[in-house]
Amino acid sequence: MIDQKDNKFAAKHQGGAQINSVIKNEILKQSKNGKLPCFIAFKIAKELQVSPADVGKTVDLLNFRLAKCQLGLYGYQPKKRKVKPKMPSDQNLKDAITDAVVAGKLPCSKVWDIAALYNVHKMRVSCACEAMNIRIINCQLGAF
C-alpha cells in the first residue's frame, strides 16, 4: 500500500500529517493500481462531505497517484496531458476566462466555475486557456 522507498507525494506535506482513515478506506475501495481518477476523488469528497484537498492529501499520504484530471492536465496515457489548445468560438466564454485571470494564471476552481456558468465541459475551458497561453494553477486536489 505505502511504498516507503518512493514516498515523494507524501513528502510534500509537512511532518506530522495524518491519514484520515475514513477517506483512506474510500480511496482504497475506489482506486485501481494505486491510481485514483480526479472524478472519483471529487465524488469521494462530496460523499464524505470533506474538501477535495483533504482527499488529495490522503492520496498523497498513501503515495498513490491522481489520474485523469478533469481539465486534461495530468494522468493520461501514453502522454501525460490530454488538453489541446483550442480557441473558444463563444466570445462571452473567452471574456469570462480573461476576466478571471490574474497575472496570466487561472485557478482550477475558476475553470470549474466558468464551465458551470456557461454549461460547457471543464476541458473546453482548459483547452481555451491553453490556446490563450493562460496557465491553470492551484489544483483543488493539490496535484499542482
Percent helix range: 40-55%
User: What gap, in angstroms, lies between the N and C termini?
Assistant: 23 Å
Helix-strand sequence = HEHHEHEHHE
Shape: elongated
Biggest beta sheet attributes: 2 strands, parallel
Overall number of strands: 4
Structural category is mainly alpha
Mean pLDDT: 93
Q: With helices defined by DSSP (H or I, 4 residues minimum), what is the helix count?
A: 6
Strand order of the largest sheet: 1-2
Low-pLDDT sequence parts: 1-5
- CA radius of gyration is 16 Å
Number of domains: 2
Strand content: 5-15%
Care to describe what's here?
The protein is mainly alpha-helical and 144 residues long. It has two domains: 4-67, no CATH class; 91-137. Helix content is 42%, strand content 8%. It contains six helices and four strands, in the order αβααβαβααβ. The strands form two sheets. It has a two-stranded parallel ribbon. A two-stranded parallel ribbon has the order 3-4. Helix 2 (38-48) crosses helix 3 and helix 5 crosses helix 6 (122-131). The longest helix has 11 residues, at 38-48. It is elongated and about 45 Å long. The two termini are 23 Å apart. Mean pLDDT is 93; it is low at 1-5.
